[in-house]
Amino acid sequence: xxxxxxxxxxxxxxxxxxxLVLSLADVLxxxxxxSGGEAEAQSASASAGGNAxxxxxxxxxxxxxxxxxxTGGSKAGATGASxxxxxxxxxxxxxxxxxxxxxxxxxKVTLVxxxxxxxxxxxxxxxxxxxxxxxxxxxxxxxxxxxxxxxxRSRAKQQELVDQFTQExxxxxxxxxxxxxxxxxxxxxxxxxxxxxxxxxxxxTNDEMLAQTDLWETVHTTMPKYGFILRYLPNQEAIxxxxxxxxxxxxxxxxxxxxxxxxxxxxxxxxxxx
Length: 274
What we know:
Shape: globular
CATH architecture of the largest domain: 2-Layer Sandwich
CATH topology of the largest domain: Muramoyl-pentapeptide Carboxypeptidase, domain 2
Strand content: 5-15%
Distance between the termini: 109 Å
Order of helices and strands: HHHEEHEHHEEHHEHEHH
């Protein structure tokens, strides 16, 4: 091989080496860029789900019509929200036909979103949701399955319901069965209406749910240690204002839930407001 040929081959080899180096650099650059972009997108997603101060929505019939402080699956929602807003609320707050909820409550409570088994979005107070998930998990280990159906709704949404039912059923019906705006426990985000699921089938009507006596006994016995009480006890309508609702769980936190349940008192009686 003469000198000219050797020189030509060396030039080609050098050029090839340069191309390989440039290709490797491109791969590393775009790999890093993609990784950074994914992290940025995740951060933006978390920020978008966690910045709203107040959820102005309803969970009537298992759906919410507003935004909350965290989005996604219920566990991610419960653990991903800031606890700062929940620190200032009273978990023993009394809301009934004679006790109105403070209008500023919505600005203090931290609400998160959960997705129930039907794929509906449910809005719940952050700490109550985390406690419910623990309760739900223990019950499932005992063969009892319950799911969220209706939880938080705003004062504005409650007024819409009052107007709707007044038009459809009359004011007498509303006075007996529908809470006035500002007087519904669901506005606190601490009231959880749940449905039992038996053999994979949701019990949706009142009659179906009331028939599940053994299931409710297990639920009501287990839930106090997770901070829940049965809000509307049997034969206590004169005090609570509502008939027995085994599906209406109210989060008050522990150890108050255990004390209230053990005493057999309504929340009104426990707080000296009966």
